[in-house]
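call fold(seq) -> tokens
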Amino acid sequence: MDSIALLSLLKMRDLQGFKIQVTLSLAQTGFDTDNSQRYSHAT
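ret:
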């Protein structure tokens, strides 16, 4: 019972970390596109 609960907790933590990674990468690419658009508009 304890091992199953521990496994589910680890899976939830991995999913949370994966979601954070995805949102961070999406935000980074969003910032990159915003910056490139700003630079293209400036030049």
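The two ends are 63 Å apart (CA to CA).
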